[in-house]
Amino acid sequence: MKDTILNSVQETLLMGPGPSCVPPEVYRALSLPTIGHLDPLFIEIMDEIQGRLRRIMNTKNRLTLPISGTGSAGMETCFVNLVEPGDDVLVLINGVFGKRMEDVAGRLGAMVDAIEFDWGAPVDVAQVRERLSKKDYRIVAVVHAETSTGVANPVAKIGALVWETDALYLVDTVTSLGGMPVEADDWGVDAVYSGTQKCLSCPPGLAPVSFSERAVEKTMQRKTKVPNWYLDLSMIVNYWEGKKRAYHHTAPVNMLYGLHQALGLILDEGPENVFGRHMDCHALLVETLGDMGIAMFVDPDCRLPMLNAVVIPEGVDEAAVRSRLLTDYRIEIGAGLGPLAGKIWRIGVMGHTARPENITRLASALSDVL
Ligand SMILES: Cc1ncc(COP(=O)(O)O)c(C=O)c1O
Q1: pLDDT tens column, 120-155
Q2: Most informative mutation of 94, 149, 174, 202 for ligand 1 (most atoms within 8 A of CB)
Q3: What's the 242 CA to ligand 1 centre distance in angstroms?
Q4: Ligand 1, atom 16: nearest CA belongs to which residue?
Q5: What burial letters (b/e) apply to 183-216, b meaning 16+ CB within 10 Å?
Q6: DSSP string spanning 215-229?
Q7: Which listed residue, of 193, 203, 245, 363, carries a Cα 20 to 30 Å from 74's Cα?
């Protein structure tokens, strides 16, 4: 049988908000022969993945593993294991993914308070301090790299405030992990999650998650069962830890090969070098777009290197530009979301995409199209 639709899939320069370009080594790993998910060799691969994740997240947390599912599954895993109905949860919101956290926590019966900040500005630490001085929370949650706006939130400073309270600190690192430092232990993070398809440069499908000992203790003290069977970490750990592994669900074997390889590439290059490469490409992009008269949406002091929100020039049909970039040049860039739709483009410089030749190729195509 000829798979005609799949024959139409072409290499695309992925410069949107994710997925990012996948390096050939990761494609090779994905296409290795599938083995059993309880094969002793596979268990060794799993153990190595956990070790590599700990290094990239900068944590000693024993409970560190990839959840089967995309970044949102990582988000659900953190909330569903830590929240019980009636718990007070504070979510700091300055974009789409903070809003998603509020929704997820609310569905679990949490009493959610949100502090909302302008989309395009960072979370204001003084407001967080004030709120925490007035009320006790079980969880304080924030997004490190807000992909919808291109803003980096001051997660270390917020962590220092949360550390003074009894609350657990929950941080989304879907876009930041692998592209800028994530210091889970130093920042006092209790639950952290990410996704594979951004700066880790592996296709979408896995969500690395890590829980501190404090967070694990809280899950063990739950009065109610975790309401979601698939994401219940107390069961999943029996597959990921210990001498005897127990089946929970069939692990996505080949995706895990891909993640193993993707993490290995970052560690081989050296995380500091990888972060430097992201910063250099970001600087080149800002300069090149500046020369074309295109301005950045976010102030330099809180701009993300890997997700660049740029102001759409006056009078430009933004959807037509994106469509031409894709059809004529095979380059993908992202649109604005929610209140920023039609106002910004989101240009991703993530993982394997973060190479100067890609910035030059985009700039040349964009200037032709404009
Ligand atoms: C910051 C952030 N959190 C969560 C998610 C959700 O991840 P996914 O789309 O992989 O489910 C995304 C996806 O773009 C994201 O950027």
Answers
A1: 999 999 999 999 999 999 999 999 999 999 999 999
A2: 174
A3: 31
A4: 147
A5: ebeebbbbbbbbbbbbbbbbbebbbbbbbbeebb
A6: HHHHHHT-SS--S-S
A7: 245
